Structures are given as C-alpha cells and as structure tokens.
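Apologies for my clumsy wording, but can you show me some protein sequence, whichever is easiest, together with the matching structure tokens, please?
=====
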Amino acid sequence: MDTGIKTRVERTFLSLPRDERETIISHGTALRLSDLRKRLFLAESKVRHFEEKYQVALAQLDADGLPDDADYEMHEDYIMWHHWATVAGKIKKSIASLEEIAQQGLYIGELSYAGY
C-alpha cells in the first residue's frame, strides 16, 4: 500500500472512538485466529500424514538422513514434509502473537496505540 494512503488509513482508524477501535481489532483478531487455526490444522495434518507414511518423525529423519534406498517419491515427500513443518511453525508463532494481543489488549497506557 502506498505510504500516503497507509498514513491516511491509519489516521482515519485512529480518529475512531477508542471503543470502536477495540471492537474492530477484537473482531479482526478473532477472525484471523480462526483462519490461522484452520491452516494450522491442515499443516499439522500433512506433517502427521508423512510421519505415519514413513513411520518416523521429521527431526529423526533429518538426523539420520534419507535411507540409501529412498525413491523419487520419498525425496518429493521429504521436501513437502519440510514445507508443511515450516508452515506449521510460522502459523504457531502468528497464533501466539495474536493470542497475546487478545489476552492483553492493544493499548499500552491511556493514549498510545500499540504498534503506532
């Protein structure tokens, strides 16, 4: 977003009454958390699928290395397995940050808005 437009949007948002800003952020946080939890479920399901398929945890496979007789499919799965593990890790961090916002609130002091 253009910096000038972003600044105007921020100013417009900050011009709203405090309770209205809190409501918007609260609802947005709840919606985003819901979306992230769905994505986390998908990513963790993919990781579990590979763990069940190969009967090993990714960390152990990384430590041991791929077997000498690993076929093309296992190499491809290994790449996707890492992808989904990375996605799950990033989503967990995002969820933790948003849950902290939801629990503590957005305001630091009476007049300053966190992040601005």
Remarks:
- Residues 108-116 have pLDDT under 50 and may be disordered.
- The first strand starts at residue 107 and ends at 108.
- The helical segments are 3-15, 18-54, 58-64, 72-104.
